[in-house]
């Protein structure tokens, strides 16, 4: 249902994104990304690595590295997908927020809420230039 391809949206070193290989109806579970969690106080170590750009908040006291395709979804303020944390399964689950066409890049709002337009850390730097 999904594949990794070169993305025009990614500004990162690897320029990858997640794309639909077939039409995905609204509400469909797209991907269950297993997570490796760590306490927030350990984040100072992650900040010194490239992994800093790929971690998610995971509850009030933890952060998580997402495995599978989880950390490869790119950001949009008008996303076509959303995600929920499953503490029971230790996953972050990605769902189609609207119908997604085959070949379309699957995008999430990094703020967590599809309607949140708060500035993001990597976009704030661009605004200053």
TrEMBL record:
The superkingdom of the source organism is Bacteria
Q: Mind telling me which PROSITE patterns this protein's record contains?
A: SET
InterPro entries associated with the record: SET7_MeTrfase, SET_dom, SET_dom_sf, SET_domain_protein
Which lineage do the record's taxonomy fields give for this organism? Bacteria, Bacillati, Bacillota, Bacilli, Bacillales
PANTHER family per record: SET DOMAIN-CONTAINING PROTEIN 5
The protein's matches in Pfam families, at most eight in alphabetical order, are given as: SET
Q: Tell me where in this chain the SET domain is found.
A: 1-111
Q: What is this protein called?
A: SET domain-containing protein
Organism the protein comes from = Paenibacillus chartarius
């Amino acid at each position: 249902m999904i594949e990794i391809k070169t993305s025009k949206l990614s500004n990162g070193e690897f320029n990858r994104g997640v794309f639909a290989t077939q039409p995905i109806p609204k509400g469909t579970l797209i991907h269950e990304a297993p997570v490796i969690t760590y306490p927030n106080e350990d984040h100072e170590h992650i900040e010194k690595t490239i992994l800093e750009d790929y971690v998610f908040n995971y509850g009030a006291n933890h952060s998580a590295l997402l495995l599978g395709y989880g950390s490869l979804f790119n950001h949009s303020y008008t996303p076509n997908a959303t995600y929920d944390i499953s503490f029971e399964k230790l996953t972050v689950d990605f769902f189609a927020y609207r119908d997604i066409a085959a070949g379309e890049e699957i995008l999430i709002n990094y703020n967590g809420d599809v309607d949140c337009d708060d500035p993001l850390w990597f976009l704030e730097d661009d605004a200053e230039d």
